[in-house]
Each structure stands twice: as structure tokens, then as C-alpha cells.
Amino acid sequence: MKKIEHIGIAVKNLEEAKATYELLLDEKPYKDETVTSEGVITSFFKAGESKIELLAATNPDSPIAKFIEKRGEGIHHIAFNVADIEKEIKVLEEKGFQLINKKAKKGADNKWVAFLHPKSANGVLVELCQDV
């Protein structure tokens, strides 16, 4: 794993959260994107060498809506940049990590993504990211 790619933060109201992070980071998001397959709309901010991804549900059955209902707003996941996501998935599975995705899928911000189950990483949802 090369570096922390981004930290995902689940929010109820994307516009309010964007205003907060614009003040905090003193810049506007560089990209908003809807990921229909996940029922989420995202907004990305640069934060030094890493990024902040705000995630808001587009429907009440989406994973983000369920997360917020159960845990409230806050850190949803931490994403790591990897050179070869398919290789990394195999290596982590061999090491005993529980995978949510055994194959990479297209995610936000022009990335291939795969997730490790929080039970495998001390309660933290881990996302692997590779540029498409």
C-alpha cells in the first residue's frame, strides 16, 4: 500500500457538509460524483497529499443511509492507494483478511475499488483504490 488515498466521511446533508469542509480546508471540492450502484453522491476535497470524500445517501436503502442510521455521521472508511488492486486483494485474502469484494469494481473519482470487512481491521472499513 502506497499511501492513504482518502478518508470517507458519511454525512446526512451533502451541501451543509461541503460548506463546513470548504471553511475547514479553505477550498472548494474539486469533484462531485454520483455512484448509482452504491446509492451515494460524493464530494472530494484535496487535503495535502490525501483527500477527504464526503458521502451522502441518494436513497434510504443505500449503505451510507444504513451506516448513518446505525452510527450517525462520521468517518465511514479509510482508503489506501495500491499499485495492483487484484494482487493486493489476493495477498490480503491469503493473510486472512475478510473481503467484501473479491474483485475490484469501478468506484468514484476514476478508481478501481475493493473493500475489506471492518471485522478484519479493528472495526474500520478499509478501501483499496487503484487509478483506472
UniProtKB/TrEMBL annotation:
Span of domain VOC: 3-131
Record flagged with keyword Metal-binding: yes
Parts of the chain that traverse the membrane: none
The keyword Transferase is annotated on this UniProt entry: no
UniProt-listed SUPFAM superfamilies: Glyoxalase/Bleomycin resistance protein/Dihydroxybiphenyl dioxygenase (SSF54593)
CDD domains per record: MMCE (cd07249)
EC number: 5.1.99.1
Keywords, comma-separated and alphabetical: Isomerase, Metal-binding
InterPro entries the record matches: Glyas_Bleomycin-R_OHBP_Dase (IPR029068), MeMalonyl-CoA_epimerase (IPR017515), MMCE/EMCE_epimerase (IPR051785), VOC_core (IPR037523)
GO MF terms, alphabetically ordered: metal ion binding; methylmalonyl-CoA epimerase activity
EC category: isomerase
Pfam families per the UniProt record, alphabetical: Glyoxalase_4
Gene Ontology annotations of biological process type: L-methylmalonyl-CoA metabolic process
Similarity comment: Belongs to the methylmalonyl-CoA epimerase family.
NCBIfam families (UniProt xref): metmalonyl_epim
Name of protein: Methylmalonyl-CoA/ethylmalonyl-CoA epimerase
Organism, scientific name: Mesonia hippocampi
